[in-house]
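Troubleshooting entry. The earlier prediction with zinc ion gave an output that would not parse, so I re-checked the input for stray whitespace and re-submitted. Clean input:
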Amino acid sequence: MSLNRALIFLGPPGAGKGTQSKRLAAVLGVPHLSTGDMLRDAVVRGSELGRMAAPMMERGELVPDAIVMGMVEERIALRDCAGGFIFDGFPRTIPQAEHLDRILARLGYGKPLVVEFHVSAETLLRRVAGRWTCSVGGETYNVYERPPRVAGICDNDGGKLIQRADDRAEIVRERMAAYERQTKPLADYYRDHGVLEVIDGTAPVEDVHRELLGIVRRTDDKRDGHL
Ligand SMILES: [Zn+2]
């Protein structure tokens, strides 16, 4: 089975995109590309865009879209992307998606495959806001799905369980609202272009993985049929 195109995952934080994209990249033998990695890569390779971006990144500034898109194009033009690649957390906006479509067409990749992870707000809150971390060994628990034997205490080493700032309910709600504002329009954009697939992100990791493989296979067959 081959990917031979860009695979884009959409979904709110905590939907399982990171886990699934790494796993699928390994199984399909394609690169897994996050924006941060692509930027750092361009800096390391010392490309012209990398040299422009390096001082901005050092100062912690946001790198402008024009530079980011140029780096994406440089990265996916490399030989290891010839069999396809998976984007993690990219594109984030409609202008980026439109620009990416032009780059993909120019490099001969055709349309991307886009998979949206559907997870209800309650499930996300349970998954993320229910997470407590051991202050000693770093083990994670979930007060709803995998609670410790004694509330607030680690089963393994008796360490105190703490909630990371990122995992607090109000922060999770904020992130979800930001996701709705920014990423929902992206899903609509890709649906209008006929390349959006939706999967149930609440299913067990193994089931989601199998379903993703099924989607890649099915949509690949469909493309062959059009050749
Ligand atoms: Zn512990």
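This one parsed fine. The chain has a mean pLDDT of 90.
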